[in-house]
Design goal:
There is one protein chain. The chain is mainly α. It has a domain at about 270-488. About 75% of the residues lie in helices and about 0% in strands.
Length: about 500
């Protein structure tokens, strides 16, 4: 007879933040259904933000305890709490910068906020999961929500095309992941990470099923974070998606997949052999180089940022290749830094200027005169993406490349620094157009240079975070280092 499985209240403690987010999603859905249409948008926005703030408070309460639940398949340790705080913070900023965009593009407020919340809950389950099946379920919750978010502009053919491409390639990567999990289960008899590790330590770690299974899992993760050559979907999806959604996906979704990557590597599944290091080395170099070279060729700013996000995934993959504590600490720091500067940059692009949303570099011409505060913040985000001093991007890259150099990865470090220098061309091109080119407008064009208060609040928050991480990085670096100890 099969053994009965009992769930107790203590099992729910590690997933209290996830429960809060999902309950908030249900409340938003009901409010959208029953509240008067004229009053619902503000109510939905406030309800979403309150739910996310309550989830952040519960994460802070859980920090440092390392509580497990559901028979060891879920954990709330320092590592998961830190990454989940990143997702929740990005979601709050996304809500702030989305309101006017949703109205202008005739999107449904309730659907949009519910999908943001469910996507965040999926990311949180991924990061907390100690069972490959829990990670898979979390990944699918995030992915399905993301597919719909990308296609929210139903009347725009480009958005529909982007959603379809994302769905098809996402389903393809899901197949790789499931095959990989089945291979690991066949080799070890378990899908729970600690049990898989124990089994591999007792038996031969070079089992072909384990090697094939891990290869398939890695390929699936590379699809989700747009590592070359699994990056084909990124430019079209990022360009076709609603601009706030693009920022949300580039910041939070990639951080969630890297969190899973780190947990798998540091908990002991064999990715540290010489052959694996060579493969990941090649993928990191390809991602940095191809991403930057393709970004140089773009005329649309969103498409440029899409290709540059591939390059940034390559920088983060450098830390995965090195695998040392200082490198992974740099990975966590860089994930936060890229989250705030990426969300901020895409947030600037959501602001309607001279009657439409900026698309090309020419659309940003004269932006510094029309919208001086937004142009200043955009300049800060571009400087941080380059990795200039006094910004969070500089500290993140410094941590990763220093760790790589200390561990003997000299050529990988040189290639990373050269690619980072190459990116200065297209990032500074944005600044040049904003301040050194005059905008050409049709006669009778009116613009006020004003932006909605909610949008400015979110953007100012990201700008302050970029500066804080660049000037006072020690506190977060200490948190990142202590969170890694929870995995060792």
């Amino acid at each position: 007879m099969s053994q009965l499985v009992f769930i107790t209240l203590s099992d729910l403690v590690p997933i209290i933040p996830e429960i809060i987010v999902l309950v908030t999603a249900c409340i938003v859905l009901l409010v959208d259904l029953f509240a008067p249409q004229k009053e619902s948008s503000f109510t939905l926005e406030v309800t979403t933000i309150i739910g996310l703030l309550l989830a952040i408070m519960s994460e802070v309460k859980l920090h440092g305890y390392g509580i497990t639940g559901f028979y060891g398949t879920i954990v709330a340790d320092e590592f998961s709490v830190l990454f989940e705080l990143i997702y929740l913070s990005v979601a709050i900023v996304t809500v702030f910068i989305s309101k006017h965009y949703i109205s202008e593009n005739e999107m449904n407020f309730g659907e949009y906020y519910v999908l943001i919340l469910t996507a965040v809950s999926g990311m949180m389950f991924m990061t907390s999961g100690l069972d490959l099946l829990v990670i898979f379920i979390g990944l699918e919750i995030m992915s399905i929500s993301s597919y719909i978010l990308v296609g929210m502009k139903r009347k725009v053919a480009r958005s529909n095309e982007a959603a379809l491409k994302y769905l098809l390639l996402g389903a393809f990567s899901t197949g790789f992941l499931l095959y990989g999990i089945s291979m690991l289960y066949g080799a070890t008899g378990s899908t729970i990470l600690p049990q898989i590790i124990d089994e591999l330590q007792k038996n031969d770690g070079d089992n072909p099923l384990v090697i094939i299974g891990m290869a398939l899992v890695v390929i699936s993760m590379c699809f989700k974070i747009a590592i070359v050559p699994f990056h084909m979907w990124t430019p079209d999806v990022y360009t076709g998606a609603p601009t706030p959604v693009t920022g949300f996906l580039s910041a939070a979704a990639k951080a969630a997949v890297f969190a899973v990557f780190v947990r798998i590597i540091l908990t002991g599944i064999p990715l540290r052999g010489a052959d694996w290091e060579k493969v990941l080395w090649i993928l990191a170099v390809l991602s940095m180089t191809v991403g930057n070279l393709m970004a140089l060729r773009q005329s649309e700013v969103k498409r440029m940022l899409a290709f540059s996000s591939i390059a940034h995934a390559g920088y983060v993959l450098v830390a995965v290749v090195v695998g040392s504590t200082s490198a992974i600490s740099g990975l966590i720091f860089y994930s936060l830094a890229y989250a705030v500067m990426g969300t901020g940059a895409f947030g600037i692009l959501t602001i309607r200027d001279f009657g439409r949303v900026p698309q090309t570099y020419d659309d940003l011409a004269g932006y510094g005169g029309r919208n001086p505060l937004q142009a200043l913040m955009m300049t800060l985000f571009m400087f941080s993406l380059i990795g200039l001093p006094l910004t969070g991007g500089f500290i993140g890259k410094l941590q990763i490349f220093s760790a790589a150099l200390d561990d003997g990865w000299v050529w990988l470090t040189i290639i990373g620094i050269l690619n980072s220098a190459l990116s200065a061309y297209y990032y500074l091109k944005v600044v040049m157009f904003m301040y050194m080119r005059e905008g050409v407008f049709p006669l009778g064009t009116n613009f006020s240079g004003k932006s909605p208060g909610f949008v400015l609040a979110g953007l100012i928050g990201t700008a302050v975070a970029v500066l804080y991480l660049g000037v006072f990085p020690d506190n977060f670096l200490k948190l990142a280092s202590s969170s890694i100890q929870a995995l060792l």
